[in-house]
Amino acid sequence: MATALFISASRILAVVTGYSAPMHIYNTKYIPENATGSVCFGKEWYRFPSSYFLPDGVRPKFVKSAFAGLLPGQFMESDAGKWDRPGMWAIPGGMNDENQEDMSKYVCPIFLDSGIYSC
Questions:
Q1: CA-CA-CA-CA dihedral for 38, 44, 48, 49, to nearest 10
Q2: Model confidence pTM above 0.70
Q3: What b/e string do you get for 51-67 counting C-beta neighbours within 10 Å, with b at 16 or more?
Q4: What is the DSSP track for 27-83?
Q5: Left if phi > 0, otherwise alpha if psi is -120 to 50, otherwise beta: which for 37?
């Protein structure tokens, strides 16, 4: 029994220490707490774990890259109160069930074959 608990605890510790690097990127060392604006993601957008790890006032944005599928949408925000949160039930614009690209999700929608962005 003690061996099983030790192995389980060791695995949990290994997963937390080995796979938490993407969450540490968005700490105050790289993005100050009082920052506002956007953090842009390109080809490796899927490495972004969640917008919950960004400071208040900072939003994730996407630039066009070699990826040509559907990107995550932005949660809708409301000041109506804690029980009326449209981000929990409203479907963001531009979503589809066929993984078709939505160009409105990009802040820089033109990607040239040479790897240069043209806005």
A1: 170
A2: no
A3: eebbeeebebbbbbbee
A4: STTTS-TT--EEEEE-TTGGG---GGGSPTTEEEEEE--S--SPPPPPPP--SS-TT
A5: left
Name the pLDDT band for 49 (thresholds 50, 70, 90).
low
The pairing of strands 58-63 and 37-41 is parallel
Q: How far apart are CA 11 and CA 119, in angstroms?
A: 46
What lies within 8 Å, CB to CB, of 70 at 6+ separation is 95, 96, 99, 100, 101, 102
Cα distance between residue 53 and residue 86, in whole Å = 20
Name residue 117's beta-bridge partners. Answer: 111
Place of tokens 């790890």: 53
Torsion (CA) 118, 73, 59, 107 in degrees, nearest 10 = 10
pLDDT-derived band at 14 (thresholds 50, 70, 90) equals very high
